[in-house]
Amino acid sequence: MSTNQVLLTRRAEFSASHYYYVEGWTPEENRRVFGKCANKQGHGHNYMLEVTVTGKVDQMTGFVVDLKALKEILENEVVSVYDHRHLNLEVPEFKTMMPTTENIAVAIWKRLEGKISGATLQRVRVYEMQDLFADYYGEL
Amino acid sequence: MSTNQVLLTRRAEFSASHYYYVEGWTPEENRRVFGKCANKQGHGHNYMLEVTVTGKVDQMTGFVVDLKALKEILENEVVSVYDHRHLNLEVPEFKTMMPTTENIAVAIWKRLEGKISGATLQRVRVYEMQDLFADYYGEL
Amino acid sequence: MSTNQVLLTRRAEFSASHYYYVEGWTPEENRRVFGKCANKQGHGHNYMLEVTVTGKVDQMTGFVVDLKALKEILENEVVSVYDHRHLNLEVPEFKTMMPTTENIAVAIWKRLEGKISGATLQRVRVYEMQDLFADYYGEL
Amino acid sequence: MSTNQVLLTRRAEFSASHYYYVEGWTPEENRRVFGKCANKQGHGHNYMLEVTVTGKVDQMTGFVVDLKALKEILENEVVSVYDHRHLNLEVPEFKTMMPTTENIAVAIWKRLEGKISGATLQRVRVYEMQDLFADYYGEL
Amino acid sequence: MSTNQVLLTRRAEFSASHYYYVEGWTPEENRRVFGKCANKQGHGHNYMLEVTVTGKVDQMTGFVVDLKALKEILENEVVSVYDHRHLNLEVPEFKTMMPTTENIAVAIWKRLEGKISGATLQRVRVYEMQDLFADYYGEL
Amino acid sequence: MSTNQVLLTRRAEFSASHYYYVEGWTPEENRRVFGKCANKQGHGHNYMLEVTVTGKVDQMTGFVVDLKALKEILENEVVSVYDHRHLNLEVPEFKTMMPTTENIAVAIWKRLEGKISGATLQRVRVYEMQDLFADYYGEL
């Protein structure tokens, strides 16, 4: 059964602040496009991250990927950088890019790509809240 | 990062009544095929809808789609028509089509198709309850 | 450890239709008080029920109450009567009493009271949806 | 059945930023007591609020409280003030009081007390996340 | 509307024990690779299973698949065999294959393949817990 | 505001195996009383624990209890002893007492009582699964 391709997904969480604001626009334009999110004092969310990898199931261990290693990568590459942080002010990639759910999914993909040995990153899903989430599958 | 294709999903809810009954069948046949759902007094559910769109992330705003516009479309095209309604008796498309989870997903797709400017409808998922849901990706 | 008083709660679910309408009122009054719930075609919910009993833990079995018996009572006294039914039209107690979340909790209490041998009914909680629920502790 | 005392609970949500920091302490002391929460750039959460009221069920309507009125009070007194805000910097009561889950529960109680006509405020529960919540029952 | 291809998903649950241990390895190697899961006394989970089938919506019934039949197949082929069992010791396929989430998904696929008349098995998802799940789409 | 009494609840999880079997009974009696749970190979659950403490809110920190200390106590006194264990075979208190949800709640109370400095243990809630949970408030 070693040749089966299986997808494995692991969740992680982080709590962070953000706001949406384009410096080149007037406050009114920002308010019109971003609504309450344009408040530069910031607001925050309990983000939920789902990382999916795909690979062949190892015949001996039954694993597609070493779960402890995967957990450690998520912790080191994402959670330790984003958790209890202000995304706009403290996370490098969001100094030049709006920390929307879409962009956070892309940014997490870039942080994880090539770091998970033995399996292929397939999807990054980010929930800003239960009612809103973004999926990124890499450049197609 | 403007060229990244990202999927964005937004949830909405509506509470509605329905029943399953084929007029050309005997009550016994209806009972055999539809079980308790054949009760023509109707019963109801808290339906949960997930609408997924796909598109390129706008370089300035970081959005695939204007979230306020998307929310408004879901409200106007679906929630205001289905919520607190009897699907069989009050929603036009279910006068000639059984309001199963499958058909509700198809019907919501038809209601939304072409209405979401700047992004492409990718999937409609409808949960009748946590244990049962249908996905429709449009005509393939 | 036989003398410990422990509370045990079990969940059950039922899907039903209802509407809110006072016959002695005008349609406008009903609409003003009950909003969309006044639509007499009805609408529905996936109700969730939590029944809590209290009692001493049996020294031999470790149970406060026989779980299979409790499940059977919930099935016979509540779920089989309410599930896939129109509460206003098909359930006797709601012919003279509005099927609000509050009244459903009280009605379920009356259906269960005295039926659970060896333990005491402590609370009935009914969720109409995740965002709205009622608790009844019996007449105090 | 008009004399039954029933508890009714309604949920609401708000997303906000906060940090924990005692100005009279050194950064090291703050870090030791508050850990990552001491980061003054702030971080945030999707807070979930459950407000419970108690009262007699109205014989005519079947309600303990007017749900539309209750929803409006939660919106006006809490959500519109806390949602998409930085609690420490933008909400008056948290300028002199740490915005911990405990204190937020107490503060929401004070905002709601005496505002819900016809029913009695019984409990305010605030979830900072699913794993952590505080309950306040008023001064006993 | 009979020609629409829709995916339908149904959930089921089972509670089971398992452990991870390669007999040819030393206890130290097992501990290093499998961590706490190497404890041969076993531990357990509330597994959640999601089975997705795809097919055309029947013009008359509105169904992709007979839901009662699907539920019965899940019960007979999976739940009755896995529920309240020790997977390593009591379920045949796990005597020669590690009962990891990945392998359980593959094993359930094999149990269901060809059994669901009128629809095509599309995906088997198994949650070991909310934070970890595996998807299998069959041999590609 | 230092004199407000607030309840704080924290969740923790553990995955464990168990079975229900009275040695002095015949296999048939065990099967009749405990059903599938009488299988001595064992089965398992993802248990969820909610521990509630009550106390006055500290005027300076805004806390009822030091959250890091509370988390550590739950980890040391409960999770490290129960997680990935077979309750009947590896946890001392369940060698002479059935590991039912009721008894697990009582046992966790005894493990935590007197260990949480500065606050009073108020309730231990244990979920065996979402549909079944037990509450213990100590000896009354």
Descriptive notes:
Six copies of one chain form a homohexamer. Chain A has four helices and five strands; from the N terminus they run E-H-E-H-E-H-H-E-E. Chain A has about 140 residues and is an alpha+beta fold. Chain A has one domain (about 5-135): Tetrahydropterin Synthase, Chain A, CATH 3.30.479.10. In chain A, strand 4 and strand 5 form a beta hairpin. The mean pLDDT of chain A is about 95. The interface between B and C is medium-sized, with 21 and 21 residues. Strand 1 (about 5-20) of chain C pairs antiparallel with strand 5 of chain F.
Descriptors for this entry?
homohexamer; about 140 residues; alpha+beta; Tetrahydropterin Synthase, Chain A; five-stranded mixed beta sheet; 4 helices
- Quickly give the structural class of chain A: alpha+beta
What's the total number of strands of chain A?
5
Total discrete domains of chain A: 1
DSSP helix fraction of chain A: 25-40%
**Which sequence of SSEs, written as H and E, runs from N to C of chain A?**
EHEHEHHEE
Helix tally of chain A? 4
* Overall morphology of chain A: elongated
Oligomer: homohexamer
Main beta sheet strand tally, sense and closure of chain A: 5 strands, mixed
- CATH topology tier name of chain A: Tetrahydropterin Synthase, Chain A
Indicate the proportion of strand residues of chain A.
25-35%
The CATH superfamily of chain A appears as 6-pyruvoyl tetrahydropterin synthase/QueD
- Assigned CATH class of chain A: Alpha Beta
Instruction: State mean pLDDT of chain A (0 to 100 scale).
Output: 95
Architecture of chain A, according to CATH? 2-Layer Sandwich
